[in-house]
Amino acid sequence: MVKAVFFDFWGTLVENGTYSPLRQSFKILRARMPYGQFVEQFERVVMAQKHPDQATAFAEACKAFNVDPLPLIIDRLIGVWNKNRLLAKLYPDTVDTLKALKEKGMKIAIISNAPENSVEQVIDRYNLKEYFDGVFVSHEYGQLKTEGLFETALKKLKLKKTDVISVGDSLETDIKGAEKAGVKGYLLDRKNSREYENKITGLKDVLKLVEE
């Protein structure tokens, strides 16, 4: 029986304020590697540890990809990620789905790879805090989704892996991270353009999943 739902944040509950900041970062840094490999390395440097400020975080990213941390590059990266946070907006089905799940007595948590304060500020802006029993962001715990963040959430919320389903829009981080933790993951594919067995096309489909 499903007792809890773990949600990804960006691209699942909240729409990015700009076109994929990760892909933009990939282009800005001109990383000479496959995009998937870049994402894992970039998130580990920028999102899985705390930094005194954004400039420091992105300077560390530059070093990780053997790029000279020029002020122009740092400023561009800061601009992309600030725009993403400041212009972020909820998907139309987000609040209704969260409300309905709470009415069913479900525990709800966020599992997110994200820079410092990005998730927290958006939650505060849209008054979402009341819906969540836990907010697990990579920078706070020093873990990415594929490196233990799901397991941390299970332990903190005193849940068994069989009690939970996870929903996210990324096969590489959301689904892979859930699978590693033994949690059943569902791909949220709003455009219905990807092939995956456990797939939903809208958040309200989650209500059916918890009833099955």
In percent, how much strand structure appears in the residues? 5-15%
CATH H-level superfamily title of the largest domain: HAD superfamily/HAD-like
Rg on CA atoms, Å: 17 Å
Query: Which architecture of the largest domain would the CATH scheme give at its second level?
Result: 3-Layer(aba) Sandwich
Please explain how this structure is put together:
With 212 residues, the protein is α/β, with parallel strands linked by helices. The protein has helices at residues 21-29, 35-46, 54-64, 71-86, 94-103, 118-125, 138-141, 149-156, 171-180, 205-211; strands at 4-7, 14-15, 89-90, 107-112, 134-137, 164-168, 184-188, 199-200. The N and C termini lie close together (8 Å). The model has no long low-confidence stretch (mean pLDDT 95).
List keywords for this structure.
single chain; 212 residues; alpha/beta; Rossmann fold; 6-stranded parallel β-sheet; two-stranded antiparallel ribbon; 10 helices; 45% helix; globular
Q: What is the strand and helix layout of this fold?
A:
Elements: E1 4-7, E2 14-15, H1 21-29, H2 35-46, H3 54-64, H4 71-86, E3 89-90, H5 94-103, E4 107-112, H6 118-125, E5 134-137, H7 138-141, H8 149-156, E6 164-168, H9 171-180, E7 184-188, E8 199-200, H10 205-211
Parallel strand pairs: 1-4, 1-6, 4-5, 6-7, 7-8
Antiparallel strand pairs: 2-3
Helix pairs in contact: 1-4, 2-3, 3-4
